[in-house]
């Protein structure tokens, strides 16, 4: 496998997402499609990377002797990649949060040493609500998937 071009590095991700260690679960973005001329997000795609290491704090207790990445953190990694996909420079500063998770499936355990390839695609864009289809692969094998409904609220309109 050759070296993958980095479209968005960790520094840029930190500028967009509010998450910090130990909850920042995207290391880099290697592909992101351009916005269509309409400016709508529908059809946009992203491919992001999360390197899973034995040093992750959750492996201490999940599980001793058989470390497995918790499914909820895999979903969180999907959500963070989805948030990066929803980001548009034309938008005001946004608070992006999960409104719902549908059809979540975990097919293969994620273990230390795995590299998660996070894929997301925008299915619907209703302005403040965006529906995203997500898949997670390890070495080309589907390990998890879910649909995430994201709420996008301009920070100046938050109560």
Task: Describe this structure as you would to a colleague.
- By secondary structure, the chain is mainly beta.
- It has one domain (10-157): Roll (Thiol Ester Dehydrase, Chain A).
- Helices cover 14% and strands 38% of the residues.
- It contains two helices and six strands.
- The protein has helices at residues 10-16, 71-86, and strands spanning 28-32, 45-51, 94-106, 115-125, 129-138, 141-154.
- A hairpin with a 2-residue loop joins strand 5 and strand 6.
- The longest helix has 16 residues, at 71-86.
Mean pLDDT, as a whole number? 93
Q: Segments where pLDDT lies below 50 for 5+ residues?
A: none
Query: What is the helical fraction, as a range of percent?
Result: 10-25%
CATH class: Alpha Beta
The CATH superfamily title? Hotdog Thioesterase
Strand coverage percent? 35-45%
Number of individual domains? 1
- Span between termini: 48 Å
Placed side by side, the strands forming the largest sheet appear as: 1-2-4-5-6-3
Count of helices?
Answer: 2
CATH-defined fold name: Thiol Ester Dehydrase, Chain A
CATH architectural arrangement: Roll
Specify the biggest β-sheet.
Answer: 6 strands, antiparallel
Radius of gyration: 16 Å
Helix/strand-derived category reads: mainly beta
Tally of DSSP β-strands: 6
What general outline do the C-alpha atoms trace? globular
Order of helices and strands: HEEHEEEE
């Amino acid at each position: 496998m050759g070296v993958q071009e980095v479209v968005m590095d960790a520094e840029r991700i930190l500028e967009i997402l509010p998450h910090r260690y130990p909850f920042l679960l995207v290391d880099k973005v290697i592909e992101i499609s351009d916005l269509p001329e309409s400016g709508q997000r529908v059809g946009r795609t992203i491919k992001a990377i999360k390197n899973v290491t034995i040093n992750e704090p959750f492996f201490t207790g999940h599980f001793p002797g058989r470390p497995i990445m918790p499914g909820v953190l895999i979903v969180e990694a999907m959500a963070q990649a989805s948030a990066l996909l929803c980001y548009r420079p034309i938008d005001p500063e946004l608070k992006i949060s999960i409104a719902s998770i549908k059809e979540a499936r975990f097919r293969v355990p994620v273990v230390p040493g795995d590299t998660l390839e996070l894929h997301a695609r925008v299915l619907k864009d209703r302005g403040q609500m965006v529906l995203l289809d997500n898949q997670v692969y390890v070495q080309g094998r589907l390990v998890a998937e879910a649909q995430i409904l994201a709420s996008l609220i301009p920070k100046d309109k938050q109560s």
